[in-house]
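**Protein of interest**
===
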Amino acid sequence: MRTIIVKHTIQAPIEQVFDLIADHARYDQFPGVRKSTLIRNGKPSKNGVGAIREIDAGKAWFREEITAYQRPTRMDYQIVRSFPPLQHRGASVQLKKVGNATEVTWTSTVRLKVPLIGDLLTPLLASQLAKSFKRVLQAIGRRLAV
Protein backbone atom coordinates (compact mmCIF):
# COMPACT_ATOMS: atom_id res chain seq x y z
CA MET A 1 0.00 0.00 0.00
CA ARG A 2 1.14 3.51 -0.76
CA THR A 3 -0.20 6.69 0.76
CA ILE A 4 -0.28 9.72 -1.52
CA ILE A 5 -0.39 13.19 0.02
CA VAL A 6 -0.75 16.25 -2.20
CA LYS A 7 -0.92 19.75 -0.70
CA HIS A 8 -1.82 22.72 -2.84
CA THR A 9 -2.93 26.27 -2.08
CA ILE A 10 -5.64 27.85 -4.22
CA GLN A 11 -6.15 31.60 -4.22
CA ALA A 12 -9.92 31.46 -3.78
CA PRO A 13 -12.54 31.23 -1.00
CA ILE A 14 -12.89 27.83 0.66
CA GLU A 15 -16.58 27.44 -0.31
CA GLN A 16 -15.85 27.93 -4.02
CA VAL A 17 -12.93 25.49 -3.93
CA PHE A 18 -14.97 22.85 -2.11
CA ASP A 19 -17.90 23.17 -4.51
CA LEU A 20 -15.66 22.50 -7.52
CA ILE A 21 -13.90 19.58 -5.84
CA ALA A 22 -17.22 18.05 -4.82
CA ASP A 23 -18.86 18.51 -8.23
CA HIS A 24 -17.49 15.23 -9.55
CA ALA A 25 -20.09 15.01 -12.31
CA ARG A 26 -18.09 17.76 -14.04
CA TYR A 27 -14.60 16.31 -13.54
CA ASP A 28 -14.46 15.79 -17.31
CA GLN A 29 -13.48 19.46 -17.50
CA PHE A 30 -10.18 18.66 -15.78
CA PRO A 31 -6.94 17.44 -17.39
CA GLY A 32 -6.75 13.68 -17.93
CA VAL A 33 -10.46 13.02 -17.39
CA ARG A 34 -12.38 11.93 -20.49
CA LYS A 35 -15.76 11.49 -18.88
CA SER A 36 -17.28 11.71 -15.43
CA THR A 37 -20.76 10.65 -14.45
CA LEU A 38 -22.77 10.97 -11.28
CA ILE A 39 -24.38 7.51 -10.99
CA ARG A 40 -26.26 7.98 -7.71
CA ASN A 41 -27.12 11.11 -5.76
CA GLY A 42 -25.92 11.45 -2.20
CA LYS A 43 -27.21 13.29 0.87
CA PRO A 44 -27.63 16.04 1.98
CA SER A 45 -26.75 17.19 -1.55
CA LYS A 46 -26.39 15.23 -4.78
CA ASN A 47 -22.60 15.19 -4.23
CA GLY A 48 -22.90 14.19 -0.56
CA VAL A 49 -22.54 10.96 1.39
CA GLY A 50 -23.58 7.94 -0.65
CA ALA A 51 -23.06 9.60 -4.03
CA ILE A 52 -21.46 7.29 -6.57
CA ARG A 53 -19.36 8.68 -9.38
CA GLU A 54 -17.61 7.06 -12.32
CA ILE A 55 -14.49 8.64 -13.75
CA ASP A 56 -13.00 7.62 -17.11
CA ALA A 57 -9.36 8.71 -17.23
CA GLY A 58 -8.45 7.01 -20.49
CA LYS A 59 -6.33 4.03 -19.51
CA ALA A 60 -7.91 3.97 -16.05
CA TRP A 61 -11.50 3.87 -14.80
CA PHE A 62 -12.81 4.40 -11.25
CA ARG A 63 -16.13 3.99 -9.46
CA GLU A 64 -16.05 5.92 -6.20
CA GLU A 65 -18.49 6.34 -3.33
CA ILE A 66 -18.53 9.48 -1.18
CA THR A 67 -18.11 8.43 2.46
CA ALA A 68 -17.88 11.83 4.19
CA TYR A 69 -19.16 15.24 3.11
CA GLN A 70 -18.60 18.23 5.39
CA ARG A 71 -18.97 21.35 3.28
CA PRO A 72 -16.66 23.30 3.01
CA THR A 73 -13.86 21.47 4.83
CA ARG A 74 -13.84 17.78 3.91
CA MET A 75 -14.89 15.16 1.39
CA ASP A 76 -13.85 11.50 1.63
CA TYR A 77 -14.35 8.73 -0.88
CA GLN A 78 -13.73 5.04 -1.39
CA ILE A 79 -12.86 3.45 -4.74
CA VAL A 80 -15.24 0.50 -4.96
CA ARG A 81 -14.33 -0.69 -8.50
CA SER A 82 -11.60 0.22 -10.92
CA PHE A 83 -9.48 -0.67 -13.88
CA PRO A 84 -6.74 -1.47 -13.31
CA PRO A 85 -7.96 -3.19 -10.14
CA LEU A 86 -7.00 -1.38 -6.94
CA GLN A 87 -7.08 -2.06 -3.25
CA HIS A 88 -8.12 1.28 -1.78
CA ARG A 89 -8.11 2.23 1.88
CA GLY A 90 -9.93 5.46 1.18
CA ALA A 91 -9.17 9.04 0.29
CA SER A 92 -9.78 12.36 1.96
CA VAL A 93 -9.77 15.86 0.52
CA GLN A 94 -9.44 18.34 3.38
CA LEU A 95 -9.66 22.11 2.98
CA LYS A 96 -8.45 24.82 5.32
CA LYS A 97 -8.92 28.56 5.02
CA VAL A 98 -5.56 30.35 5.01
CA GLY A 99 -6.11 34.10 4.77
CA ASN A 100 -7.94 34.71 1.50
CA ALA A 101 -6.77 31.38 0.09
CA THR A 102 -7.61 27.71 0.60
CA GLU A 103 -5.07 25.02 1.44
CA VAL A 104 -6.13 21.62 0.09
CA THR A 105 -4.64 18.35 1.33
CA TRP A 106 -5.61 15.32 -0.79
CA THR A 107 -4.67 11.97 0.76
CA SER A 108 -5.28 8.51 -0.72
CA THR A 109 -3.95 5.04 0.10
CA VAL A 110 -3.82 2.50 -2.74
CA ARG A 111 -2.24 -0.70 -3.99
CA LEU A 112 -2.37 -2.11 -7.50
CA LYS A 113 -4.04 -5.55 -7.35
CA VAL A 114 -2.26 -7.26 -10.23
CA PRO A 115 -0.79 -10.72 -9.55
CA LEU A 116 3.01 -10.91 -9.33
CA ILE A 117 3.76 -7.31 -10.40
CA GLY A 118 1.20 -5.27 -8.44
CA ASP A 119 3.53 -4.47 -5.57
CA LEU A 120 6.29 -3.51 -8.01
CA LEU A 121 4.02 -1.17 -9.96
CA THR A 122 2.22 0.42 -7.00
CA PRO A 123 4.89 3.15 -6.56
CA LEU A 124 4.46 4.13 -10.23
CA LEU A 125 0.68 4.22 -9.80
CA ALA A 126 1.03 6.38 -6.68
CA SER A 127 3.27 8.81 -8.55
CA GLN A 128 0.77 9.09 -11.42
CA LEU A 129 -2.15 9.60 -9.05
CA ALA A 130 -0.24 12.33 -7.17
CA LYS A 131 0.37 14.14 -10.48
CA SER A 132 -3.30 13.78 -11.40
CA PHE A 133 -4.49 15.16 -8.06
CA LYS A 134 -2.12 18.13 -8.45
CA ARG A 135 -3.36 18.81 -12.02
CA VAL A 136 -6.99 18.80 -10.85
CA LEU A 137 -6.21 21.25 -8.04
CA GLN A 138 -4.24 23.51 -10.40
CA ALA A 139 -7.14 23.48 -12.87
CA ILE A 140 -9.55 24.46 -10.07
CA GLY A 141 -7.20 27.32 -9.18
CA ARG A 142 -7.13 28.52 -12.79
CA ARG A 143 -10.91 28.31 -13.10
CA LEU A 144 -11.49 30.31 -9.91
CA ALA A 145 -8.89 32.94 -10.86
CA VAL A 146 -11.03 33.99 -13.83
